[in-house]
Design brief:
- The protein is 7% helix and 41% strand.
- By secondary structure, it is mostly beta strands.
- The chain has a single domain, classed as Rieske Iron-sulfur Protein (3-layer Sandwich).
- The strands form three sheets. A four-stranded antiparallel sheet has the order 2-3-4-8, with no helix packed on it.
- Strand 3 and strand 4 form a beta hairpin.
Length: 106
């Protein structure tokens, strides 16, 4: 696994990420959906496994699940699991925060 810096600091991340609002990140040729939830950053593949919907255009529901904008499939941000098991789970990526910055593991 490679660790790639995505933010120089927590304050840089806070300037870009809004609580519970999905954001597109492109890194190493991959499209990744970032979501800040309760101050923690989660990263999952950006394409819905059901119909390839762009998850960064979706929303986070009241339960904290990422909801696809096309057919409302819901994914757990921590695990990538599709809540109702109607489609395959998302690939999730670890996030590491340190004094040197915020990194994603790919």
């Amino acid at each position: 696994m490679d660790w790639i810096k995505i933010f120089e600091s927590t304050s840089d991340a806070e300037k870009v990420l809004t609580e519970n609002k999905p954001k597109l990140l492109r890194v190493n040729g991959r499209s990744i959906c970032l979501v800040k939830q309760n101050g923690k950053i989660f990263a999952v593949q950006n394409n819905c496994t059901h119909s390839e919907g762009s998850l960064h255009l979706g929303k986070v529901n009241l339960l904290g699940d990422l909801v696809c904008p096309l057919h409302q499939h819901q994914y757990n941000l921590k695990t990538g699991r599709e809540v109702d098991q109607r489609s395959a789970d998302l690939e999730s990526f670890p996030i590491c925060e340190s004094e040197e910055g915020i990194f994603i593991g790919i």
